[in-house]
Amino acid sequence: MEWLADRFFRSNGTWIDAASGASVRILLDEASAVDALDWEEQCARLAKVRHPLLNPLLDYGDAPAGQRFEAYAELPPLASGRQSNDLRLHVSQFLRGAGISLDGPRGAVATRGLATRGEGSSIRPLGVTLQPRRALSAIQDVLEG
Predict the structure, then answer these.
(1) pLDDT by residue, tens only, the chain of 145 residues
(2) Is 85 within 8 Å of 120 (Cβ atoms)?
(3) What is the three-state SS of 34-45?
(4) How far apart are CA 141 and CA 39, in angstroms?
(5) Nearest CA-CA partner of 22 in 39, 8, 12, 32
(6) Which helix (H) or strand (E) segment is 134 a member of?
(7) Are the CB atoms for 70 and 26 separated by under 8 Å?
(8) Which of 16, 50, 52, 65 has its CA 20 to 30 A from that of 127?
(9) How far from 50 is each of 33, 40, 78, 103, 137, CA to CA, in Å?
């Protein structure tokens, strides 16, 4: 059994989050010192955003053999009907405003699929950025102090 970051394991070709038992999408990439800071910043930003079209970033970091990983929750495709183009445009604008780039393979694992058959359900395109709470920071300081 292959493990990644002591949290994710591969079983029958599917990556599983040991913390929740849910399947996850893993992106493995070659680590590079040249873009390490940019990659870290992009992941930190991506971990804090939520949008109906995004699979949440659960964890990221170093992987074996000089690689790095990103682990995303695997949410089911959205039934969007005729809304699909509007949703894609909205998530693109939201991410650009947050300074996040979803190029290439990252975009494929970070975004949910859209089922465009039929009417679909009405989905409100709302993107949010999670903010740290001062109360939690104070508790963390006490526990770490």
Answers:
(1) 899 999 999 999 999 999 999 999 999 999 998 899 999 999 999 999 999 999 999 999 999 999 999 999 999 988 776 778 888 899 999 999 999 999 899 999 999 988 766 555 567 889 999 988 888 888 888 999 8
(2) no
(3) CCHHHHHHHHHH
(4) 27
(5) 8
(6) helix 134-144
(7) yes
(8) 16
(9) 28, 18, 15, 18, 21
Per the CB < 8 A criterion, the answer to whether 72 and 58 are in contact is yes
86: left (phi over 0), alpha (psi -120 to 50) or beta: alpha
- The structure tokens listed for 115 are 């089922």
User: What are the structure tokens assigned to 20, written together?
Assistant: 């929740």
Report the amino acid identity of residue 1: M
Q: Which two tokens stand for residue 22?
A: 């849910």
Q: CA triplet 67, 71, 77: central angle to 5 degrees? A: 135
Looking at residue 26, its amino acid is I
Q: Specify the pairing of strand 49-50 against strand 128-129.
A: antiparallel
- H or E segment and range at residue 137: helix 134-144
Question: What is the pTM (predicted TM-score) of this model?
Answer: 0.86
78 contacts 113 by C-beta, under 8 angstroms: yes
